[in-house]
Amino acid sequence: MRALVALAVLLLAPVASAEFGRYDATGYPVAVDGTPTYPGGILPTGQLPEGPLNRVGPFTVYPYYPILTAEVQRLAAEHPDLVKLHSAGKSTLGLDLWMLEIADFANPDMLPLEKREVVWVDGGTHSNEYSGVWFAAHLASFLAGGYGANETATWIVENRHTWIMPLVNPDGSHAFGRLNAHGVNVNRNYPVDWGALAEDALFNNPGPHPASEVETQHNIAWFNKTRPDLYVSIHCCGNLWLYPYGVEGLDPLDQQMLSRVCDEAFPSVRDDCGPIWSTIYPASGSSVDTVYEYTGAAAFGYEMSGRGAVALWGQPFTANAIEAEEVESWTGILHGFLNVHRYGAYPELVGARVEGDEVVLRVRNEGYGNLTNTTVSTAFQPAGPAGMLVDPAILTVPLPALLPGEETEVRARIDGAGMLTLRVDYVKRHMASPTGERTFELEVREEAGGLAVFFGGEALAATSAGGAAVPFVAPAAVAVVLAALALRRPRRA
Ligand SMILES: [Zn+2]
Question: How far is the CA of 302 from the centre of ligand 1 (A)?
Fold first, then answer.
């Protein structure tokens, strides 16, 4: 029966069609160098290979549902303190939609999950685009296996709440095809803009109504449950990075921010990062558009390059590390993990000085998006056992809107030495209005020359009599070291 399904898929595959990538005449994705990821003729039509499906010659591959299942179960079993394996629900044919939740759960000093930026990565919505399954599974392995050994992996595990669904459409994987068991393109089935474009019925069937498919329904439920700050859905091929919208001419409210992500995360391939409709082609009902509107996430579709030879069924047929084969996407996803707190507005305390009975706090927008709808509160508690909050104990005021890189001053009343708290409440991104909150605890000390302000143990400024403020870098800032990764321009077909 499986062979018959595969035969049917192969026979039904002659229409060149694309969804987040180009397809050759057999219906298989085309790599960035123009090579079809399924080399027609290698396998007799309708026959399945013998033996373990995770091995092609000397190479280990991750395309096939039973193999992927073994891999995600291995990750959870070998790293019980780091990886929780969930089923996000059952596919149309009853297969589990595996979801890996990754964080340092057993760390007694762990940063509470609710304080973390949430990152979601999925692959295999089009299940014959196996590079994405490989990439997502490898990412999970990198984080779990690299914890404690690799500095980047360790930082991500300790500071982000990561959800990885390597294979959104396991039924399609079983059939070695692109669609789900109802013949629906899951990435045309999402509610936002559903049916807005006339698509070919064979490869881009959007389903009878929005979210008609259980794969779509389960994903939406988990979007709403996990509320990602960064959403990355991986497809293949073409080496492109796509943000909302699929509908021609429609710009997202966070277009400026998303474009800035392209600038920073994909500098060597900047022209290949942009809105779905203008960077690849118009497409309706995609997961990227729906996640963006439902959760306000910075939402991207990644097209793998498909670089490197590929094997039966489009598995990456290479012994090279995915970090090398998919260097642009790997660099981009790490940029996302390390910088997602700046994918939107991001208020940072960048300096402070004492002026009379006030501390003047400098707040700068270090995010990629505009800082708007912001309020700041300050509270001061004098030193000493009888310390009480100074009147006004808490002052809440609106902050003027700040473009990226702009700063403003906030004044807080003090009364000698003590502790000063600055709290900033803001809107991170502008679709679905996800909110952010940052709190800074400063110490005002008596020094030889007068009062001085300290943050994280470091002096911020001279006293009221002493003059200019001393610039400083907030210790919370995350150093991004990606320059060491050699970027190279991909070949284009
Ligand atoms: Zn795709």
Answer: 9
CA–CA dist 10, 170 (Å, integer): 17
Neighbours of 242 (CB within 10 A): 29
Q: Which CATH number fits domain 2-342: 3.40.630.10, 3.40.50.2000, 3.40.50.150, 3.40.190.150?
A: 3.40.630.10
CB-based contacts of 149: which residues, under 8 Å, 6+ apart? Answer: none
Q: Among the CATH numbers 1.10.10, 1.20.1250, 2.60.40, 2.40.160, which is that of 347-461?
A: 2.60.40
Q: What is the mean pLDDT of the chain?
A: 81
Quote the ligand 1 centre to 293 CA distance (angstroms).
20
Neighbours of ion ligand 1 (CB under 5 A): 19-20, 126, 129, 235
Residues 119-153 pLDDT 10s: 999 999 998 788 888 899 999 999 999 999 999 99
Residue 489, CA atoms < 13 Å, CB-side half-sphere? 5
How far is ligand 1, taken at its centre, from the CA of residue 187, in Å?
Answer: 8
Give the pairing of strands 160-165 and 96-102. Answer: antiparallel
If we measure between CA atoms, which residue out of 216, 206, 168 comes closest to residue 184? 206
Distance CA 32, CA 278 (A): 18
Handedness of CA 100, 243, 369, 264 (dihedral sign): positive
Domain(s) of CATH 3.40.630.10: residues in the chain:
2-342
Q: Phi and psi dihedrals of 114, rounded to 5?
A: -70, -10
The rounded Å distance from CA 110 to ligand 1 centre is 36
pTM: 0.83
- Rounded to whole angstroms, the Cα distance separating 16 from 367 reads 41
| Tokens found for residue 455 | 């943050």
pLDDT in tens, 15-28: 334 455 565 554 55
Determine how many CB atoms are found less than 10 A away from the CB of residue 308: 19
Distance from residue 130's CA to the centre of ligand 1 (Å):
10
Ligand 1 centroid vs 237 CA: distance in angstroms?
Answer: 8
